[in-house]
Write a structure and sequence with these properties.
With 576 residues, the protein is α+β, with helices and mostly antiparallel strands. 39% of the residues lie in helices and 20% in strands. The strands form five sheets. The protein has an eight-stranded mixed β-sheet, with helices on one face.
Length: 576
């Protein structure tokens, strides 16, 4: 932006003059009649030789199509600022008197958008050393030299500069308005920090974290947002260089995982690119980024220890960011394990509160369906469906030895569900044989177990690849049940078909072994099979829907006949 560049050039010239005492002012004057902006500084100034060596390069490269290439090739900072002016103007005038030579003449350089320029003694010498730059905007770019636009831009870019900078309107009797000299946000008292953040970033911060990297001259403050921004990544930060605003959306200086905060920071000794619109990538920048991340991490730890109410809100709002943070940075795993609350089959828990063996699911329906079942068997199922949730659990499992986290497998759970014992074993065998005979036509098989909760009548376990067997694993005793099959000397080949698991603790399942007519028993088994598919979230095909409807109809008719016979028997007894 040309206003920033002109102010930067003027500020550099003032600093280069190197005189002690109060810094001389920089004056911006808008001329609405002429459609021009004048910037006056009392800095080091230019000699005629300076003008010819620097400004001639700019004049030769001022065509719009050559601007990008010239900005990359020409490193003179004064020239860069003038070059940017040709984006809004076809003519620029520079009048300057050098402070290095008391006898120096005032020179005048005029550059045009067609690449031509002139350098000659100024017809009206400057009374004091310094430089006057006058930008004549093209008619279609006149808004860029309007009073309101210039004031806003000057304020945005130069508010933290110590040098006095004013904006005035030619012909307006009102005094010039100062746009610089504000205290930096990192120097503000706590009560004023929130107001600065609201004014600049547009939100009231939940908390603020000071930043300080003395070896690089970096100071700043991180403002923690009170609202989540899922999926948007980092919004960018306000970066200053020696007080001048470099960018309002810079993403170079703060780690990507800090999605819960926006930062205002003085870049100190970090270098800028030739365009002065971003930071130069370097080892120093990488070091600064790492240190800023460490300080933000430490600040969140202090918040957790010192203000549990605010921290609780922070976790509630930024839980997803914390999970992403832990996945990207192993050093944050323990922090998240101590503070992030997970939904589990036993209620809300943090990882540090969980037993040493847990399972987790990446499917919301699966968690809802099987959490009661896992809990009833003495296990713990964790809802890992949060964004980055499963990745964080896997990373935490690898990073420490206290807790082991494995992804939930329904097939493994089947191996661990208790088998019926004693007299129930015979009933289970009878029901199992009947169920397998019915399900064979559907390409499925059946197993009978006795488990809690009794409300879980059936389970659907998807088919396995042929030849797959469970290897010996410490998870086998998670729920307390059968010994896993020896992969070397199995008792028999594993059945690869889908399995209907019937819960013998449920009265409806036990009734399958009673005095039911064979047809009624078959219809009941068919209905339970289709129920298990629905329960597993499997959409029934048209023929399966028809089969379910037929099975229910048969059961209802059988129940009706039974009820009729019962009623008839009671009536006969009453008559007798």
């Amino acid at each position: 932006m040309y206003v920033r560049e002109l102010i930067q050039n003027a500020r550099d010239a003032v600093v280069a003059r190197g005189e002690h005492g109060d810094l001389p002012p920089i004056e911006l004057v808008v001329d609405p009649v002429a459609g021009a902006l004048t910037v006056r500084d009392y800095g080091i100034g230019l000699t005629e030789a300076d003008a010819r060596s620097l400004l001639s390069t700019i004049g030769a490269s001022s065509k719009r199509e050559e601007l990008a290439a010239a900005r990359r090739e020409f490193l003179g900072q004064f020239g860069i600022g003038l070059l940017s002016c040709f984006l809004v103007a076809d003519q620029i005038e520079v009048t300057s008197r050098s402070a290095r030579d008391p006898e120096a003449q005032t020179m005048r350089w005029v550059g045009r958008g067609d690449g031509t320029f002139t350098v000659a003694p100024a017809p009206e010498p400057l009374a004091e050393p310094g430089t006057v730059v006058r930008v004549h905007a093209r008619p279609d770019e006149a808004e860029w030299v309007g009073a309101g636009r210039v004031h806003r831009l000057a304020r945005e870019y130069a508010s933290l500069l110590a040098v006095p900078i004013t904006v005035a309107v030619a012909g307006d009797p009102r005094p010039a308005v100062r746009v610089s000299g504000d205290p930096a946000p990192w120097d503000l008292p706590d009560h004023a920090l929130g107001l600065w953040c609201e004014d600049v970033f547009g939100f009231a911060p939940l908390a603020s974290i000071p930043l300080d990297v003395p070896m690089l001259g970096i100071r700043g403050v991180a403002f923690v947002t009170g609202e989540a921004t899922p999926g948007r990544g980092r919004a960018g930060d306000r970066v200053f260089s020696h007080g001048m605003s470099v960018a309002a959306d810079n993403t170079q200086l703060v780690p990507e995982w800090v999605t819960f905060a926006r930062v205002a920071v003085e870049a100190g000794s970090l270098g800028l690119t030739a365009s002065r619109e971003s930071l130069h990538e370097s080892g120093a920048l990488a070091t600064a980024r790492e240190e800023i991340g460490r300080q933000i991490h430490a600040g969140i730890e202090r918040l957790a220890a010192g203000d549990p109410v605010v921290f609780s809100r922070f976790v509630a709002v930024h839980g997803q960011s914390l999970l992403a943070l832990a996945v990207a940075h192993a050093e944050m795993l323990e922090f998240v394990a101590r503070h992030f609350t997970w939904e589990t089959s036993a209620g809300a828990m943090r990882l540090v509160e969980m037993p040493t063996r847990i399972t987790f699911t990446t499917d919301e329906r699966e968690f809802t369906t099987y959490a009661p079942l896992v809990q009833a068997q003495g296990g713990l199922l964790v809802n890992g469906t949060y964004t980055h949730g499963a990745a964080m659990l896997r990373a935490y499992d690898r990073a420490q030895t206290r807790l082991t986290a494995r992804e939930f497998e329904l097939a493994r759970l089947l191996e661990d569900l208790p088998a019926p014992l004693g007299e129930d074993a015979d009933l289970a065998g009878q029901i199992g044989d009947a169920a397998r005979a019915v399900l064979d036509q559907f390409g499925a098989t059946a197993e009978v177990r006795a488990f809690r909760p009794v409300s879980q009548l059936v389970l659907h376990v998807p088919g396995r690849a042929a030849g797959f067997v469970f290897e010996d694993d410490p998870w086998a005793d998670l729920l307390g049940g059968a010994t896993p099959v020896d992969p070397v000397d199995p008792v028999g080949p594993a059945d690869p078909r889908p399995t209907l698991v019937l819960n013998l603790r449920a009265e409806a399942v036990r009734a399958l072994g009673g005095g039911l007519a064979p047809t009624t028993r078959a219809e009941a088994i068919r209905a339970l099979h289709l129920l298990s598919l629905l329960q597993a979230g499997i959409r029934l095909r048209a023929e399966e829907q028809a089969s379910l409807a037929g099975a229910l109809q048969s059961l209802l008719l059988a129940a009706a006949r039974t009820e009729t016979r019962t009623t008839d028997n009671r009536t006969t007894e009453d008559r007798g």
